[in-house]
Every structure is written in structure tokens, then in C-alpha cells.
Structure of Homoserine dehydrogenase:
Amino acid sequence: MIQNIRKVALLGMGTVGGGVYKIIEKQKNELIHKIGAELEISKVLVRNKGKYANLIAPEKLTDQWSDIIEDDSIEIVVEVMGGIEPAATYIKEALQKGKHVVTANKDLIAVQGHELLELAKTNHCDLLFEAAVAGGIPIIRPLNQCLAGNEITEVMGIINGTTNFILTKMSEEGMDFAEALQLATDLGYAEADPTADIEGHDAGRKLAILASLAFNSPVTFQNVYTEGISKISAKDIRYAHELGCEIKLLGIAKNTEDGIEVKVHPTMIPQSHPLAAVNDSYNAVFIHGDAVGDAMFYGRGAGELPTGSAVVGDILDVARNIQFHCTGRIGSSCYKNIPIKDIKETKSSYYVRMKLEDRAGTLAALAGVFGSNNVSISMLLQKTKDEKTADVVIVTYDVLEKQFMDSIIVISNMSMVKEISSIIRVYH
């Protein structure tokens, strides 16, 4: 028996909004039993009502925010517009009016998430954002609930499907970067302007959210070091294979004794690691906790229905909380204030590919520069060679980024060094 109706307003009818609408309409009868109430999308905010006239009943369509914020019967606002404004204003006003909010907006949560969660707490509201990271993969809720008994020391993952698709094509089919990017664009994986994806900004926003939840300390996008994949070559992919590795764009967050490390960059990862086998547009998040050990979450990281699935899951959670009078029970988990480490103070192993003059004493000179900066060489390989130059690959042991980069500055100015072709961090 239906006890009541939980009314929802949907802000935006793009890819994600369309997915949310389809799932709720398809599951309408099932949701009554899952919630204990009927779920109704009573308003849909769009820019152009005429565009959706054949899909949504006219009385539900609006282009005025006031039709939603002033309607006291609407309890849940679902923001799937994206961007910072007007989404931030709408979410704040909704929370201040006592409306619960579900959002998929990683850009906003990565910058203002802590502030918004505090506002939700003040107004005894739910603010849920499962879809903001890794699309359809459940990861926010596990961090907040299932793994809450753990001290989590590391979160890392493949959290951008576009770059993973590009690197997969480079690895499996020998494509160069430009060719793989064009294919990703043709298939709709890459935007017309792919900068946010290929330069690591999208993954950086998601990593900021994951690190904040995992380590219970505020981390914003501005804290995350980001480096993209545009300099990765087919040659680097081949050499990585020879070293038993794959190259992936990884988001890596660690909670160390002297602060939090948060960085996104191309990484050589051993082929034996579970993340090395995550290909195409799939995402995966790998977590280490003191009690659970290692756990990995894998699935579709984007798309209409996978992301819509995560949004609808949050809507059902809020609706149930309203039914049982327990909203606002999970607010901001950032009760610590751990310092964020500068990238220069982090440690890594490095792969360096350079083009050198083929003359006596060159390798000894390089080793001398590295040694004077406390950089130990794990492996040195001479690859291709012509009459005047040789392609040389060096892999270091773990070293402070600052010491390694000091070495590179000196080496790049040496007369026998014609080119430093590539620098990629190596994960152990």
C-alpha cells in the first residue's frame, strides 16, 4: 500500500539527467517496494522547454528555478547540470530551504564539497554525490559506510575512461597518441575539447573527493598535482612492456606520517597489479585499509545509464531516510586537518628516456650527476642507436622528487644530451 509520494526535481536533462529520468520511469513500480513510497519526478529544469516537449509532460517542464525552490512539496533536488554556477547557488539555496540534494557534479564537490556538506549538516539535510566519482562504480558509499572501520592509507585508481581508452589502444594496437585520441573522439569517448581528460584535470577532481573521504581531511582540486598523457609515445609503451609494465593514468593518494600525497600522472605499473588489466573506458579504484587489506572496485566510469544508476541509488537512499525520519545522518567526514605534501617532497621511482651523443664517458657523466643528487640507478639500457646518437633508458630507485628534478635540470644542460624524451613515474 502506498503511504505517500516523495517528490523530486531534476535540474538538467543532458546525458546524466536523461539516464536518471529513464531509470526512474522504468523502475517506477519497483521503487514503491524499495522505498515504501512512490517516487515522482514532479519538475524538470531545462533551458529550452520545447526541446523536451515530446518526452516529458508539459506541466513538469520549467525553465524557472523559482518553480522548484518555492515548491514545498518537492523534497529532493537532483543536480545534474554540471559546472560551478548556477549549480552551486541552486544547491545552497535548496539546502537552506531544507531540501535534500543529490548531485553528480565532481567539479563543484572537488572545490566546495566540504562547505556544502557543512551547510547540509546545519540544515539537517542529506547531500549525496556517489556519481561524482567513477560513474556507476559504488565507491563514495563504501568509503563513508562499509569501510568506515578502517584506517585507509592509500587510494589509487584509473578514474578517467577517456585516457584509459587512449592508453589501451596505444598498448594493444601500437597507435600513437594523436591517432588514439582521434579514435576516442570519433567514438564519443573524448569531448571536442579533451583538455580536462588528457591533462589529468578530470581525474584530479575525482581524486580530491576520494582523498577527502578516505583520510577524513579536506582535500581540494587545487591541492592535487596533475600531469597528463599527451607526451606518452608508442615507444614508451613498448619499453614499458619490456620492463613488464603497463602505462596508466593513475590518481594516487597516500596518507603518510608527514602528510597527504595527492597526484595524478602517467604511471608505469607492473603487469601483475590488478589495475594493469583495467582496459578501454573502464575505471577501477584500489584501496588499502588496515583491516580490509586490499580491495578494488571496477566497472563503467561514465555514460548515461551507469552514471544515472549511481544518481538513482542516492535518490533512493534519501527517500528512505525521509521515510524513516533519519536524514542528515552522514554528513562531512572531514574531522581532521592533515597537511598536504608538495609534489617535490614525495618519493617515486622514475623511468627516463633520453637521446645522447654516442661518445665515451657519457654514461659515466650521467651517473655522476645522479649520484651527486642521491639518485640511485636501478637499471640502464641502451635501446636504439644510429651513427651519432643512442636512445638510453634509465630507471631509478625511489627518490625524492626534488632530488630527481634537480638532476634532470643539470642533465638537460649537458652538451652530450640531445633530448630528454620522456619522464614517467614507476609504481612499486
About this structure: The domain at 345-426 is CATH 3.30.70.260 (Alpha-Beta Plaits). The radius of gyration is 24 Å. The chain has 14 helices and 17 strands. The longest helix spans residues 304-323.
